[in-house]
Design goal:
Distance between the termini of chain B: 6 Å
Largest sheet of chain A: 6 strands, antiparallel
Distance between the termini of chain A: 72 Å
Number of strands of chain A: 12
Radius of gyration of chain B: 17 Å
CATH class of the largest domain in chain A: Mainly Alpha
CATH architecture of chain B: 4-Layer Sandwich
Mean pLDDT of chain B: 84
Structural class of chain A: alpha+beta
Oligomer: heterodimer
Shape of chain A: elongated
Chain lengths: 353, 234
């Protein structure tokens, strides 16, 4: 098999095997360049060859450096071949096998990279649903970037996207996907969250009992905000999940130290602490005064208590601009025949037929 | 920045106007920011004006409360898009649940234009249209209607991300946002001959030109609600 050639490509070695065929490292005989070649054998219209043809169509539509580019697609007697960029590097599955659980910071950074790739599929018009997100489909390339492989199950969503049969990997696939119901971008969000759960806990969802650990099962090693987000993304109800990978990435960004939302939470916490400090200082002053001890002037005590509030104001100004972003409103026109309070739906004005 | 504008909101041959419009402009730390919005409550649907009005009111709140957060740290169209998608998804779900509870179908199309200094971003859901008029006329959104009815809209069915297009303005240019009452019987040539920046010098001219478009559409047999927003930038 080592010397076999298909078209103008010489097969070097097998890289892997999946349900739809095998993947080979192939060398172009004229260019002496290495590519990955995916082969599907069978009758002309057998499902494996149709899936490979559909995969080539998806790859042709996508232009992103994080997705391997399509080089060639051809069909011969008894086989179809898809030639694409060869990505050398470490599979995310192998990486997690050796390194999971990762620190929360590293997991978040890695997840933002995964979400960014999947977001470019979801933001296509109409969106592309990947339907088989799992660590083995991501590569950590030698340059340190992430790449997404294998578009065999990817589906262009048009209205109510039907799955066309059950696909996906147990443990990573969303519940509605495994039941064979129509699935949307939020099914990919579920799978991304399952990968995140694997990163944080070290428990591979594709192994028994075939379900990702939810936030409530993660314990105190994971922050409360991350646990809450994990629960939300792994919800059985698709409406509760972020609607697509970009929305998930947004929520992840808000958890990062240094983000504006993080500073807001920190600011609120410090204000609360300052308030308690103020009350405590007042109580201590009253207690010592009643016992007849010499106490500092009340103004001095209050001043000391207020100091953290002022200090935080200074720190906050250093990190991000304070004050309103909007300087003035110049025009404010809304024309509608809708009745009732602004920004609310009436509860009784519309007659129920 | 927007020099002047004109608004048209006509019932046409209908008993009520199911279209809703909004125009907001404010000065921000990032520059002059404008949002123009035309929503067409779906014809034949019950409570169309409820859906279009609700979307307009909620997005007006989004413009002042949430959009500035996406603009902090500079113009980032991805952040703006995600913020709008989130807001629209919430509105869509609220309308859908409301419709379900009251046994109604509340749906609306949406065409939105955001202008920040010399950049523009358009968002489109349904068959309302937006054009940019300069030396020629060019659609800044792609109509999603195919004559056989809408495939999707806000409030009915499965949520679809709105189509987005971005661009830069150069020289004098104008934008025209239209509901489908003004797109079915009129074409780009009609809009350009009436509203070309070379013809429209002031606000009154724009108002007259929009009314003339309504008359032409009515002569051609249009009975739908007609709404338009004209923005002249410079």
């Amino acid at each position: 098999m080592e010397d076999k050639s298909i078209g103008r490509y010489r097969l070097i070695r097998k890289l892997g095997e999946g349900g739809q065929g095998s993947v080979w490292l192939a060398e172009h005989e004229g260019l002496h360049t290495f590519f990955a070649m995916k082969l599907a054998y069978g009758e002309k219209d057998c499902s494996e060859r149709l899936i490979l043809r559909r995969e080539s169509e998806r790859m042709r539509e996508l232009e992103d450096r994080r997705i391997p580019y399509l080089v060639d697609f051809f069909e011969e007697e008894g086989l179809s071949a898809l030639v694409m960029e060869y990505v050398d590097g470490l599979n995310l599955e192998e990486y997690l096998e050796h390194n999971a659980p990762l620190s929360e910071k590293e997991a978040s950074e890695l997840m933002l990279g995964l979400c960014d790739i999947v977001a470019c599929l979801h933001e296509a018009q109409p969106p592309i649903i990947y339907r088989d997100i799992k660590p083995s489909n991501f590569m950590l390339s030698e340059s340190g970037g992430l790449r997404l492989l294998d578009f065999g199950t990817a589906l262009r969503e048009s209205g109510q996207a039907q799955t066309g049969g059950i696909c996906g990997t147990p443990g990573y696939a969303a519940p509605e996907q495994l039941k064979g119901k129509s699935c949307h971008a939020d099914a990919d969000v579920y799978a991304l969250a399952a990968v995140w759960s694997y990163m944080l806990t070290g428990q591979d969802p594709s192994k028994p009992p075939f379900h990702p650990l939810h936030g409530t099962e993660c314990g105190r090693m994971v922050s409360r905000a991350s646990r809450k987000l994990l629960d939300c993304c792994l919800s059985d109800d698709p409406v509760r999940r972020p609607q697509n990978a970009a929305a998930f990435a947004d929520r992840l960004m808000q958890l990062r130290p240094g983000s504006e939302a993080f500073f807001r939470r920190l600011e609120a916490l410090l204000y609360r602490m300052s308030l308690w400090l103020l009350i405590l200082a007042a109580c201590v002053l009253i207690f010592f005064r009643d016992k007849g001890f010499p106490v500092p002037e009340a103004e001095t005590g209050l001043g000391l208590a207020i100091l953290p509030v002022l200090a935080w104001g200074l720190i906050r100004d250093c990190f991000y601009p304070s004050g309103s972003f909007i300087l003035s409103r110049n025009l404010n026109i809304v024309i509608t025949e809708k009745k009732g309070r602004k920004g609310e739906l009436p509860q009784s004005s519309v007659k129920i037929p | 920045m927007v020099l002047f504008y004109s608004v048209l909101h006509e019932k046409g041959g209908r008993m009520k106007n199911e279209d809703s419009l909004a125009l907001h402009r404010c000065e921000t730390r990032a520059g002059d920011l404008t949002m123009a919005l035309v929503c067409d409550g779906m014809g034949g649907e019950q409570a169309g004006e409820l859906a279009s009005g609700y979307v307009v009111e909620r997005l007006s709140v989004w413009f002042y409360d949430e959009l500035p957060e996406s603009l902090r740290g500079g113009f980032n169209r991805g952040k703006i898009q995600r913020s709008l998608q989130r807001a629209l998804f919430r509105i869509h779900e609220e309308l859908r649940h409301y419709g379900h509870e009251h046994m109604l179908r509340c749906g609306t199309t949406l065409t939105m234009l955001l202008l920040l200094d010399h950049r523009y971003i358009s968002f489109q859901c349904g068959d309302s249209m937006a054009y940019r008029l300069g030396r020629a006329i060019r659609g800044v959104v792609k109509s999603q209607g195919d004559g056989s009815g809408l495939k999707h809209c806000i409030g009915i069915g499965r949520f679809q991300n709105p189509q987005m297009r971005c661009g830069r303005m150069s020289g004098r240019s104008a934008f025209l946002l239209l509901s489908d009452g003004l797109t079915k019987k009129l074409n780009e040539r009609d809009y350009f001959s009436a509203l070309s920046p070379a013809v429209i010098k002031q606000e009154e001219d724009a108002g007259r030109a929009l009314r003339s478009l309504v008359r032409i559409a009515e002569k051609r047999g249009e009975t739908d609600n007609m709404s338009a927003l004209y923005l002249r930038c410079g």
